[in-house]
Amino acid sequence: MTRIAIPFVLALFALLSLPVATPGEAMQSQQYRECPRTSAQFGQTRGSETCYCSASAVRSGNVWGTGYFTDDSSVCRAALHDGKVGPGGGNVRVVFLGAHGNHHGSTQNGVTSRDYGLWPRSFRFANGDYGGGPEDRPGYGNGQACPGNATSFRGSNRAVQCQCSASDTQSGTVWGTNTYTDDSNICRAALHAGVISGRGGAVTLWPRSGRSSYSGSYRNGVETRNYGRWSGSFEFSGSSSGNPPPNWGRAEECPRNAVALRGSRATLRCECPSGASQGGTVWGTGIYTDDSSICRAAVHAGVIDTRGGTIRVTPQSGRSSYNGSRRNGVESRNYGRWSGSFEVQRDR
Fold first, then answer.
1. Which residues, 6+ apart, have CB-to-CB distance to 183 below 8 Å?
2. Where is the composition biased (Low complexity) (predicted)?
């Protein structure tokens, strides 16, 4: 009896002594299948899928686009470019998309992507924590928190590298577009410029001389303001590599209509993919009701054709009436009084 009891007790003690993973450790250890080289290899055209990028997979491969990537781009290299993983890799969620009109290259997080035009299938990455975000890697980028503004760097000609947390991007006032007054909130401006997402990330800014004027706009969910003469400015580089800012400025995809812009005085620069210009209802001519399809109105106005393109949308006050017409293959409708309007122009 004794000879049976002692081994049983020892075995039970050994079992209870095994290390137990905390919930956080369990989430970190969750392993998805390794991402294929390109999103085309998923064999999907709709929905999304989570996969794992190894450290070696993020180091090589060609990428076309910024934010929206051609489906023959390297998934993991694109994830590093987009800031969804760091050099050590991690989990990402790939969202499968249809045709996209233009893919603009840029340099971000040490990865240079290329320009390309219309491509039949594309993808982007979902926001959220899948075990691969910058917040999972303390010190990724520079690690030093960005100050509230850039006034302390005025007069310098050296790049400043710092880290924006997710909360840093959510508030603060910004003046300008691409070139910002140096009292603008750095992280909020970085979100407006598209160099980071709402999750934060590493940024590189370059102090610049003052300007005679700064034009506000609406981008990436951030509305910036106009301002006149100011003594100091800053711009962002697309990466933390210390290179001067390239000639980038990717336009976000246009919303379906302009209702969200009602009451704003900022101009929205956005991209109409080819599919978005094919359908939708439009009321007015030249000045359109703000619930009209933006991209369809742009075709009606002759600003773009059905292949899409980059446009500027300027909110206007409501009108007592709107006259429909047939232009450029699009028939718009008459309407009476409406509370908000917009007009569209070619991107300059």
1. 149, 150, 151, 175, 230, 232
2. 317-327
Please give the pLDDT value at position 246.
41
CATH code of 317's domain: 2.170.130.20
Over the stretch 169-192, which tens digit does the pLDDT of each residue have? 888 999 998 889 999 999 999 888
Q: What is the pLDDT of residue 29?
A: 34
pLDDT digits (tens, 9 = 90+) for 310-319: 898 889 999 9
> 251: which 2 tokens?
């336009």
User: Terminal CA-to-CA distance of the chain, rounded, Å?
Assistant: 91
Q: Which of 109, 136, 163 marks a domain boundary? A: 136
Question: Structural domain of residue 159, as residue ranges?
Answer: 151-237
Amino acid at position 292, single letter:
S
SS3 state at 51: strand
Does some domain include residue 310? yes
Backbone angles phi, psi at 282, to 5 degrees: -130, 135
State the Cα–Cα distance between residues 139 and 187, nearest whole angstrom: 17
Residue in the block written with tokens 């509370």: 339
d(CA 126, CA 92): 8
Which of 136, 162, 187 represents a domain boundary (last residue)?
136
User: What is the three-class DSSP state of 188?
Assistant: helix
Please state, in angstroms and rounded to a whole number, the distance separating the CA atoms of residues 85 and 92: 7
CA angle 45, 50, 52 (to 5 degrees): 125
| Number of domains making up the chain | 3
With beta carbons less than 8 A apart as the criterion, state whether 61 and 73 touch: yes
Residue in this structure with the two tokens 């993983």, named with its chain if needed: 85
**And the tokens for 220?**
């990436």
Q: Tell me the pLDDT tens digit for each residue of 189-247.
A: 988 888 888 878 888 888 888 888 888 888 888 888 988 888 889 988 753 333 444 43
Between CA 76 and CA 94, with CA 111 as vertex, the angle to 5 degrees is 30
Residue 93: what pLDDT? 85
